[in-house]
């Protein structure tokens, strides 16, 4: 029986579980000329990040299979006085992909944004991962620009999406 992913807010004590998901979720980037910097983070780094910001953990059948970090950042907003929720490090372990985990996390992020009065979501994705941009474009995000990293001019793709009315107001367990 397929169950919906359970999504909850992460806290600094979840750093080990978060680190394990990041290590498995970004592992395929190891073969890239410039692997994801997510692989350089350890449990202590993630603990500090969760102390400074916020995060989500996603579970299926009691196993943590996805994570994301987020913050509210008015500098990410395009011409609006309201902040946008900026998220990063959203990943799902390979064996849990294509089971709605990322979409459930996105719904939870959107619910957090809506509750805080934000007007949209923003993120960056690694341009060299071929499935990144098409996945997010299908979910209504638009490309707003590119930036350099590691000397590669368009290594990072910037994407945004307004909060869409009528979308499910998924809750986040606390």
> Major β-sheet, in short?
7 strands, mixed
Strand content: 25-35%
Silhouette: globular
Compute the separation of the termini in Å: 25 Å
Helix content: 10-25%
Task: Give the strand order, joined by hyphens, for the main sheet.
Answer: 1-2-3-4-5-7-6
Which structural class matches the secondary elements? alpha+beta
- Tell me the number of strands: 7
Q: How would you portray this structure in words?
A:
With 174 residues, the chain is of the alpha+beta class. The protein is built from 4 helices and 7 strands; from the N terminus they run E-H-H-E-E-E-H-E-H-E-E. It has a 7-stranded mixed beta sheet, with helices on both faces. Helix 1 packs across helix 2.
Short overview:
Helix content is 25%, strand content 33%. It has 174 residues and is of the alpha+beta class. It is globular and about 35 Å long.
Write the layout of secondary structure elements.
Blueprint: E1 6-10, H1 15-25, H2 43-52, E2 54-60, E3 63-73, E4 84-92, H3 101-115, E5 120-126, H4 132-138, E6 142-149, E7 152-162
Parallel strand pairs: 4-5
Antiparallel strand pairs: 1-2, 2-3, 3-4, 5-7, 6-7
Helix pairs in contact: 1-2
Keywords:
about 25% helix; 7-stranded mixed β-sheet; alpha+beta; about 170 residues; 4 helices; single chain; about 35% strand
